[in-house]
Amino acid sequence: MKKVAYYAGMCILSVGMALASAAQAEKTITLMTHDSFNISKEVMADFEKNNKVKVRFLKAGDAGGALVQAILSKDNPLADVFYGVDNTFFSRAIAADIFLPYASPLLAMIPARLKLDAENRLLPVVYGDVCLNYDKEWFKKKNLAPPTDLTDLIKPAYKGLTVVENPAISSPGMAFLLATIGRFGEDGYLDFWHKLRDNEVIVANGWEDAYYGHFTSASKGDRPIVVSYASSPPAVVYYAEKPITKAPTAALVADNTAFRQIEFVGILSRTREPELAKKLVDFMLSRRFQEDIPLQMFVFPANTTARLPEVFVKYAVVAEKPVHLDPSTIEANRDGWIEAWTNTVLR
């Protein structure tokens, strides 16, 4: 009887330990993002294995829409960590008071120019320059010099050559509008857009419509100039059906022609897993995660120790002097700028 009791006790203990282990392994943490977020499954699998956790991804629309959902649900959060606030929505996110301060040790690997929050509620993960892209072959065949400045777009020789995105509904569209405001000032940007409208610019709803619906290098469209990203040329090379050694497109990143977007991650203040949330943020700033970013989202990693893939080294460019606008200025004037732009360009 003693042996039976002993073995029964051991079985109960083993089952209890197994259940406890399973419960630990089944712990879940939720990362809320915009729809454009992507990372390799094997990269996230490393984090899950090392921390005995399952990461659930909650994609919640575009960056602005996802942030609105996070703010509205702050008392009963939908996630533990939020990724995707950029510098155009930065002040709105900070004012909503939905993020916990966290000074990740990995911040030491990130340059000061990308850090916008002294309290570390939002930590920089990636950056990219929104700028003009042009079809090199089209300009060569037409014996026309490609644009070297924003002012080229309003010259007679470039009439009917440009497609942009609507800033009211498109992230790159908004970034390009900000580039023109930073370049020409609040007193001059509408004059630029008025002249661009007269020069027969096309306004597409979003990036995909502009790039794959109108841009000559990617479609049967008739627009050899499009608002895209400085990292778009390496994407063209990487996804080419047949291997190519030269990018058929180029990005214009001359001084004060591009707007730098920075995307941040933050821990939601009512997370039920604060320690795991910190570990996830650390992981997202680590080389393992950061080196996967370029070929998943075609933007640049914030961590300066992350190695870039060869296609980025060969074909990507970075603006040396991008347009800079303070996030609080953007937040205070966004709606007014968009309304003024709409009245000038679309009405």
Distance from N terminus to C terminus (CA atoms, Å) equals: 91 Å
CATH class of the largest domain: Alpha Beta
What would you say the CATH architecture of the largest domain is?
A: 3-Layer(aba) Sandwich
CATH superfamily of the largest domain: Periplasmic binding protein-like II
**Estimated structural class:** alpha/beta
- Note the run of SSEs as H and E: HEHEHEHEEHEHHEHEHEEHHHEHH
Average of the residue pLDDT scores: 91
The CATH topology of the largest domain is given as D-Maltodextrin-Binding Protein, domain 2
What is the molecular shape? globular
Which residues form runs of ≥5 with pLDDT under 50?
Answer: 1-13, 18-23
Figure out the total of helices: 14
- How many separate domains make up the residues? 2
Strand content: 15-25%
Helical content stands at 40-55%
Largest sheet, strands/sense/barrel:
11 strands, mixed
Number of strands: 11
**Computed Rg:** 24 Å
